């Protein structure tokens, strides 16, 4: 089982020919309102990748609350621990350019009142994962990590948006997942002697005894675990929108680990899922399902090892 403690948003998304510079206005023909939030995106990605998922977080009492939960309901994510609090549901304001690149502003709304108390009484153990991101209060993230560690469960932290992490929190983490910019922000406070994404990941893994995973966009991903470096390629796809690619990678990676897959097999699975998420517009509408991920991950596995023809289930 995977438990996700994190944000739930409504994404207001518009397509533009190019992203605006500071002080500049650009015009878009229309906009869409779709479910999002890093926590919800990762919960949906893990669920569509085949895992049983419980979502813990908060939505508001406004008209966006039900829409923010819509895809999670449809895909069977357990939402019994999602609180409804006074005020607006979290929102993200997203512009996507003709190359699929984006600019995002996130307004916390109800996510600012998400509480780790929602985890209390939930049965979790060594076979389970808690997934954390950084769109809910840091104090609650730390409480959630302590709760999981006390129960013997494993903790995956996606430090996004980028920023520092305390030594206390990182010591509770089994796997940290960041992109090549986020890993450097981690390195500044935790391993300042390391000077590039690869060396920062290696130093984090060695110093804190965790798996450090770095996503590299079109170049795939790398991971350092127990002194061993692992690499995985990405799929060659026509990029439409990169908004939820990182979240999809995280959810798929957790789902692969939840099925006890090895590091390289899990990386192939996650890279395939993240690549596929770039081929459709919108965050949650772009999250792929397990059958397609398996098919594309098998292609990546063959590229890595020509003698391999399937991924073990």
From TrEMBL:
Q: In this protein, which residues make up the domain named Carbohydrate kinase PfkB? A: 2-289
The UniProt entry, under InterPro entries, shows: Carboh/pur_kinase_PfkB_CS, PfkB_dom, Ribo/fructo_kinase, Ribokinase, Ribokinase-like
**Family from the record:** Belongs to the carbohydrate kinase pfkB family. Belongs to the carbohydrate kinase PfkB family. Ribokinase subfamily.
Binding site residues for K(+): 241, 243, 277, 280, 282, 286
Can you state which reaction this protein catalyses?
A: D-ribose + ATP = D-ribose 5-phosphate + ADP + H(+)
Q: Which residues form the active site?
A: 247
**What GO terms fall under cellular component here?**
cytosol
Q: What is its main location?
A: cytoplasm
A GO molecular-function descriptor: ATP binding
Q: How is the cofactor bound?
A: Requires a divalent cation, most likely magnesium in vivo, as an electrophilic catalyst to aid phosphoryl group transfer. It is the chelate of the metal and the nucleotide that is the actual substrate.
Task: Please tell me where ATP binds in this chain.
Answer: 179, 215-220, 246-247
Q: Which residues bind substrate?
A: 9-11, 37-41, 135, 247
Any matching Pfam family: PfkB
Quote the EC number. Answer: 2.7.1.15
Q: Where in the cell is it found?
A: Cytoplasm
Indicate what this protein is called per its UniProt record: Ribokinase
Q: Gene3D superfamilies annotated for this entry?
A: 3.40.1190.20
Protein activity control: Activated by a monovalent cation that binds near, but not in, the active site. The most likely occupant of the site in vivo is potassium. Ion binding induces a conformational change that may alter substrate affinity.
The free-text function statement in the UniProt record for this protein reads: Catalyzes the phosphorylation of ribose at O-5 in a reaction requiring ATP and magnesium. The resulting D-ribose-5-phosphate can then be used either for sythesis of nucleotides, histidine, and tryptophan, or as a component of the pentose phosphate pathway.
Query: Which cofactors, if any, are listed as required?
Result: Mg(2+)
Name the UniProt key words of this record, in alphabetical order: ATP-binding, Carbohydrate metabolism, Cytoplasm, Kinase, Magnesium, Metal-binding, Nucleotide-binding, Potassium, Transferase
Q: Which gene encodes it?
A: rbsK
């Amino acid at each position: 089982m995977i438990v996700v403690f994190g944000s739930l948003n409504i994404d207001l998304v518009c397509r533009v020919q190019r992203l605006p510079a500071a002080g500049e206005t650009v015009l878009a023909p229309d906009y869409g309102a779709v479910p999002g939030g890093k926590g919800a995106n990762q919960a949906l990605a893990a669920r569509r990748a085949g895992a049983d998922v419980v979502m813990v977080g908060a939505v508001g009492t406004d008209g966006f609350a039900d829409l923010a939960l819509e895809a999670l309901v449809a895909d069977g994510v357990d939402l019994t621990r999602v609180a409804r609090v006074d005020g607006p549901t979290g929102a993200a304001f997203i512009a996507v350019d003709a190359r699929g690149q984006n600019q995002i502003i996130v307004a916390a709304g109800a996510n600012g009142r998400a509480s780790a108390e929602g985890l209390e009484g939930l049965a979790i153990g060594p076979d389970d994962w808690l997934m954390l991101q950084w769109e809910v209060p840091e104090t609650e993230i730390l409480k959630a990590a302590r709760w999981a560690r006390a129960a013997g469960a494993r903790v995956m932290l996606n430090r996004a948006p980028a920023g520092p992490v305390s030594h206390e929190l990182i010591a509770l983490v089994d796997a940290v997942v960041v992109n090549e910019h986020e890993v450097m922000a981690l390195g500044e406070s935790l391993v300042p002697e390391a000077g590039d994404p690869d060396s920062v990941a290696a130093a984090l893994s060695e110093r804190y005894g965790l798996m450090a995973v770095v996503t590299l966009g079109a170049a795939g991903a790398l991971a350092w675990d127990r002194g061993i470096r692992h690499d995985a390629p990405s799929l060659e796809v026509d990029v439409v929108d990169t908004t939820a690619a990182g979240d999809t990678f995280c959810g798929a990676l957790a789902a692969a680990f939840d099925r006890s897959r090895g590091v390289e097999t899990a990386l192939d699975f996650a890279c395939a899922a993240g690549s596929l998420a770039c081929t459709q517009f919108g965050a949650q509408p772009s999250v792929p399902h397990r059958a397609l991920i398996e098919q594309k991950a098998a292609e990546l596995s063959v590229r890595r090892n020509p003698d391999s023809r399937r991924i073990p289930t």
